[in-house]
Write a structure and sequence with these properties.
Elements: E1 2-7, H1 15-23, E2 28-31, E3 40-44, E4 47-51, E5 64-67, E6 72-73, H2 75-87, E7 96-99, E8 103-104, H3 107-119, H4 132-140, H5 147-151, H6 153-174, H7 182-196, E9 200-201, H8 203-212, E10 217-220, H9 245-251, E11 258-266, E12 269-271, H10 284-292, E13 305-307, E14 309-310, H11 311-321, E15 325-329, E16 339-348, E17 351-353, H12 360-364, E18 367-374, H13 391-404, E19 408-412, E20 420-422
Parallel strand pairs: 1-10, 1-11, 2-5, 2-10, 5-7, 6-8, 7-9, 11-15, 14-16, 15-19
Antiparallel strand pairs: 3-4, 12-13, 16-17, 16-18, 19-20
Helix pairs in contact: 3-4, 6-7
The protein binds inosinic acid.
Length: 423
């Protein structure tokens, strides 16, 4: 059976820690979308690990990590991450697989991603610059390079040369940048091709067989629901489908095989990059939350924008993802705040809007109605039972549960594995 873990906000919900916790009960942890734009943080034995491409469950020695066909793979980033993990004593031998039909990010994808975003000027998306949108654009434009193409030198050479004809025209004529020589890529990537061979397989067959043999699979979503290319705050989104449905197309598994879907939401909201953010907090408190919650992008180091918990979007995410349960992270960050707010209703031009609006013009000009409650003073980092939480913290959790209409099954109160309250 497959369990999916999905982000309910704009990414950075703390999925890394949750996946690491759940991984001990699974045999396979599989990424189904996104690429090296992700930054999943896991703290284990006082050491901080940041995963970009390698699945976050890999610290458990019996887990096999899988990158599905829906992921875009940047070879230098992938091998750098492996090297770093091995340096830290994590043995990855024979327990990391890549789908042969996953697409490869090449240097021109990264260059064009950065140049294109700059060119957007005021409409800049604030991408991570990892070549995500440009790799997916080539995939859907049917000029992408899959792992299996990469492994075949003749096909790879042909594809790179064809791609570069157009990319170089764009780079030189439109962006006034210098051209990229195909030989440069072919030479540099020869090394990666030899290494990637050992990881490449038909992941769909592998996972389906594993499921049939009773293995437990954890599908690890990267980014979050409101960065989804279809349902997010378009165009301020990533280029893949982080929602739970993406796990089926991104791994080659049937919806019938999905046993459970777990949504992860932070006790407040953050967003990195541009785009509308209705519950964003202005001024000093924004800074305070950022400092206490260490809200800086794990991939780019950029400061994250901080805001109150937005129950309207989380409720919508619960429907879209069909979550069975919700996990709330970083509740400890709210300790010490005098007042805590939950965004409960949206208004546009004086009228209530019952759901998250897909019209970006509406979403950008939304007014939020909040419910306010008193905060709690106590440090909650070492609490392990729900009943031991301060009354106001318990009420906060129960109120979210009521509005979102999903059971909250766990609450994370710190970065280490032990700091979790199970209910
Ligand atoms: P891209 O995925 O690099 O194309 O970036 C598109 C948008 O998604 C930007 O606003 C990024 O900041 C955001 N984004 C991409 N990956 C993550 C992530 O892992 N966490 C949070 N935001 C992300």
């Amino acid at each position: 059976m497959v369990t999916i873990v999905v982000g309910m906000q704009w990414g950075d919900e703390g999925k890394g820690k949750i996946i690491d916790t759940l991984a001990s009960e699974h045999d396979i942890v599989a990424r189904y979308q996104g690429g090296a734009n992700a930054g999943h943080t896991v703290v284990y034995n006082n050491k901080k690990y940041i995963f970009h491409l390698v699945p976050s469950g890999i610290l458990h020695p019996d887990v096999t990590g899988v990158l599905g066909n829906g992921v875009v793979i940047d070879p230098p980033s992938f091998f750098q991450e492996i090297e770093q993990l091995e340096k830290n004593g994590v043995n990855l031998k024979d327990r990391l697989l890549i789908a042969e039909n996953a697409h490869i990010t090449l240097p021109y994808h990264k260059i064009l991603d950065r140049i294109e975003d700059e060119k957007r000027g005021i409409g800049k998306l604030g991408t991570t610059g990892r070549g995500i949108g440009t790799t997916y654009a080539d995939k859907f434009g049917r000029i992408g390079v899959r792992v299996v193409d990469f492994l075949n030198e003749e096909i790879f050479t042909k594809k790179v040369k064809i791609s570069l004809e157009l990319k170089n025209y764009l780079l030189q004529q439109y962006y006034k940048e210098s051209a990229i020589k195909p030989e440069q890529i072919l030479e540099e990537y020869r090394l990666y091709r030899d290494k990637i061979k050992n990881f490449a397989t038909d992941v769909a067959l592998y996972i389906n067989k594993a499921i049939d043999n009773g293995k437990r699979v954890l599908a690890e979503g990267a980014q979050g629901t409101f960065l989804d290319i279809d349902f997010g705050t378009y165009p301020f989104v990533t280029a893949s489908n982080p929602i739970s449905g993406g796990a089926c197309t991104g791994l080659g598994i049937s919806p019938k095989k999905i046993g459970k879907i777990i949504g992860v939401a932070k006790a407040y909201t953050t967003r990195v990059g541009m785009g509308p953010f209705p519950t964003e907090i202005e001024g000093e408190l924004n800074e305070k939350l950022r400092t206490i919650g260490n809200e800086f992008g794990a991939t780019t180091g950029r400061p994250r924008r901080c805001g109150w918990f937005d129950a309207v979007i989380v409720k919508y995410a619960a429907i879209l993802n069909g979550i069975d349960e919700l996990i709330i992270t970083k509740l400890d960050v709210l300790s010490g705040l005098k007042t805590i707010k939950i965004g409960t209703k949206y208004f546009y031009k004086g009228n209530e809007i019952k759901h998250y609006p897909l019209d970006s013009m509406v979403f950008e000009n939304i007014e939020v109605e909040y419910e306010e409650s008193d905060g709690w003073e106590e440090n909650i980092n070492n609490i392990s039972k729900f009943s031991d939480l301060p009354l106001k913290a318990k009420r906060y959790i129960e109120r979210i549960e009521e509005i979102v209409e999903r059971k909250i099954t766990a609450i994370s109160v710190g970065s280490s594995r032990e700091q979790i309250i199970k209910r």
